[in-house]
Amino acid sequence: MTSWTVAASENDVKEGKMKPVEVGGSRILLIRIDGEIFAIENRCPHMNCPLQGGILLDHSIKCSCHSWTFDLRTGAYVASDKIKVNVYETQVMDGSISVLV
């Protein structure tokens, strides 16, 4: 069963920045792009490198370990949509960012 869980304060995620959090046992990376908050699994499926050290490129993140790039909106690996990381719905209410996990 999924439910909304507060992951961070809205002020903790600045524009163009990342914030790693753990929600319900899942390692998640919160990212703000163009004012929108994205939540993506903080783990590259290639060798399990954390994505938090990666480089943000528009609406994607490039893993710092081996340059695999994932779309923040879908979680898809840009070279093959057969490979994905989990993405989570987010909502901002009363100054808090919640994630649906």
Q: How would you describe this structure to a colleague?
A:
Pfam families: Rieske. This is Rieske (2Fe-2S) protein. Its cofactor is [2Fe-2S] cluster. By secondary structure, the protein is mainly beta. The chain has one domain: 3-layer Sandwich (Rieske Iron-sulfur Protein), CATH 2.102.10. 0% of the residues lie in helices and 52% in strands. It contains no helices and 12 strands. Strands 2-3-4-10 form a 4-stranded antiparallel β-sheet, with no helix packed on it. Strands 1-12-11 form a 3-stranded antiparallel β-sheet, with no helix packed on it. It has a 3-stranded antiparallel β-sheet with strand order 5-6-7, with no helix packed on it. A hairpin with a 2-residue loop joins strand 3 (26-33) and strand 4. The radius of gyration is 13 Å and the shape is globular. The N and C termini lie close together (8 Å). The model has no long low-confidence stretch (mean pLDDT 96).
CATH class: Mainly Beta
State the CATH topology. Rieske Iron-sulfur Protein
Report the order of strands and helices.
EEEEEEEEEEEE
Helix content: under 10%
Q: What is the number of strand segments?
A: 12
- What's the CATH architecture name? 3-layer Sandwich
Described by the principal axes of the CA atoms, the overall outline is globular
Termini distance?
A: 8 Å
Kindly estimate the percentage of residues that lie in beta strands according to DSSP: over 45%
Q: How many distinct helices?
A: 0
The total tally of domains equals 1
Spans of 5+ residues with little confidence (pLDDT < 50)? none
Give me the Rg, rounded: 13 Å
Cofactor: [2Fe-2S] cluster
Pfam families: Rieske
GO molecular function: 2 iron, 2 sulfur cluster binding; metal ion binding
Organism: Methanolobus mangrovi
